[in-house]
Write a structure and sequence with these properties.
4 helices; elongated; alpha+beta; 240 residues; 25% helix; eight-stranded antiparallel β-sheet
């Protein structure tokens, strides 16, 4: 039974298509580099231990890259009405009321999730609704956990209008190593929990801006599972 469970688990994990070109080019480059090192250190210099060290390091680096581009198949288990689901794997680094001046121009409750290199970097929609705005902005590449990263780094802003709870803003933020944000959300399209919102390549962060009366269900430094952890519940608008 244990082996069968492991096989079923593996079938639910696949590699994200955003990593196809990166993994292919990196794999070929590492193979060529290791082939050259083998020829130099084994055949010419007779120092095979150096080649073995290089081979081990190369294998570890490529393994980290493969791990980074994992794309597990997940389905949220539970009622989605009024629920805000974590848009990413990672760790909660911010829970606070902030003045959001790019879209709402008022006070919002911000919950931020930092993704390290070891986390899955696929992003999911945190709520069901209609995409009202998608905007990409170029910027700097500060470390993703710094407060200024939310306003100064390269980022994509997605605003989702829910049926009874108002608008939710999701912001994908590039980190110090990230150089590409991919956003699948399209304006005026319906979106649902369980669907991919986008992908961020290498070290990054996702901010979620909620109404100030939202009931936050996570705590600082808590680990989150994208499309699995409930980060907040929403209260209906008074006129809903």
């Amino acid at each position: 039974m244990g082996t069968l469970k492991k096989i079923k688990k593996l079938k639910k994990i696949r590699l994200h298509h955003e990593g196809t070109s990166t993994l292919t080019v990196s794999g070929i480059s590492l193979l060529a580099f290791n082939g050259l090192c083998f020829w130099i250190f084994n055949r010419i210099l007779n120092m095979p231990y150096i080649f073995y060290g290089i081979f081990i390091v190369s294998t570890v680096v490529y393994g980290i890259m493969v791990n980074f581009f994992r794309c597990p198949i997940r389905y949220f288990k539970g009622e989605t009405d009024g629920v805000v689901v974590a848009p990413a794997d990672g760790k909660i680094v911010v829970i606070e009321d902030v003045d959001e001046q790019e879209y709402f121009h008022d006070t919002r409750k911000m919950v931020s999730i930092f993704m390290s290199l070891t986390n899955v970097h696929a992003n999911w929609f945190p709520v069901d609704g209609i995409v009202k705005k998608v905007e990409h902005q170029n910027g700097n590449y500060h470390k993703a956990w710094l407060p200024k990263a939310s306003l100064e780094n390269e980022r994509s802003t997605i605003v989702i209008e829910t049926e009874k709870y108002g608008e939710i803003l999701v912001r994908q933020i590039a980190g110090a190593m990230a150089r590409r944000i991919v956003t699948y959300a399209r304006q005026d399209e319906e979106c649902y929990i369980d669907e991919h919102l986008g992908f961020i390549k290498f070290g990054s962060r996702v901010d979620v801006f909620l109404p100030t009366n939202a009931d936050v269900k996570v705590t600082m430094n808590q680990s989150t599972v994208g499309n699995g952890t409930v980060i907040a519940t929403l209260k209906p608008l008074s006129n809903a």
